[in-house]
């Protein structure tokens, strides 16, 4: 597993992988990047700030299928719309699902004060809705689970 990383390191690795495997992040299976104002609207609606790494990803890359995972986006009407996907779960604001495992479980951020912490937690609804930390940050989740990056 990769350790915490900054934006520059992540986007460099993301571009390298995307050049080698362009079908892993095909525009055909992804939503467009969103405007920062869309994120601010969502944050105001739920009363919490999302982690900066997820915010940057949504505004630079978008959402949808990123390699072997899906990432919820801010695009209205999308099957990956963050607000729509979280609405029916009844977990907001304590847990913000940002991806699912397509078998009923969710990956997301856990509330910490007035924002969400950077770590990625896995929530298995069959396990009493108790999220377990599985990645130190969003970028590590994308590279390790989504793009299978190996150092």
Topology record:
Elements: H1 7-20, E1 30-31, H2 36-46, H3 52-60, E2 63-66, E3 69-71, H4 82-87, E4 95-100, E5 106-112, E6 115-116, E7 120-123, E8 132-135, H5 138-146
Antiparallel strand pairs: 1-2, 2-3, 4-5, 5-6, 5-7, 7-8
Description:
Strand 2 and strand 3 (69-71) form a beta hairpin. The chain has helices at residues 7-20, 36-46, 52-60, 82-87, 138-146; strands at 30-31, 63-66, 69-71, 95-100, 106-112, 115-116, 120-123, 132-135. The strands form two sheets. Strands 4, 5, 6, 7 and 8 form a five-stranded antiparallel β-sheet that branches. The protein has a three-stranded antiparallel β-sheet with strand order 1-2-3, with helices on one face. The termini are close together. By secondary structure, the protein is α+β, with helices and mostly antiparallel strands. The chain is globular. The model has no long low-confidence stretch (mean pLDDT 90).
Helical run tally: 5
Strand coverage percent: 15-25%
- Provide the helix percentage: 25-40%
Specify the overall morphology.
globular
Write down how many β-strands occur, each being a DSSP E stretch of 2 or more residues: 8
User: Mean of the pLDDT scores?
Assistant: 90
User: In angstroms, what is the radius of gyration?
Assistant: 14 Å
Helical/strand content category = alpha+beta
Poorly predicted ranges (pLDDT <50, ≥5 residues)?
none
Characterize the main sheet: 5 strands, antiparallel
End-to-end gap: 9 Å
Order of helices and strands: HEHHEEHEEEEEH
């Amino acid at each position: 597993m990769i350790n915490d990383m900054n934006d520059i390191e992540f986007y460099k690795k993301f571009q390298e992988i995307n050049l080698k495997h362009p079908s892993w992040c095909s525009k055909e299976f992804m939503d467009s990047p969103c405007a920062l104002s869309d994120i601010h609207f969502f944050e105001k609606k739920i009363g919490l700030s999302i982690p900066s790494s997820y915010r940057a990803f949504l505004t630079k890359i978008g959402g949808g299928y990123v390699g072997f995972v899906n990432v919820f986006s801010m695009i209205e009407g999308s099957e990956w719309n963050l607000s729509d996907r979280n609405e029916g779960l009844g977990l907001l604001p304590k847990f913000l699902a940002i991806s699912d495992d397509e078998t009923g479980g969710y990956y997301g951020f856990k509330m910490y004060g007035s924002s969400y912490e950077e770590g990625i937690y896995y929530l298995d609804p069959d396990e009493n809705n108790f999220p377990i930390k599985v990645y130190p940050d969003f970028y590590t989740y994308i590279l390790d689970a989504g793009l299978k990056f190996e150092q």
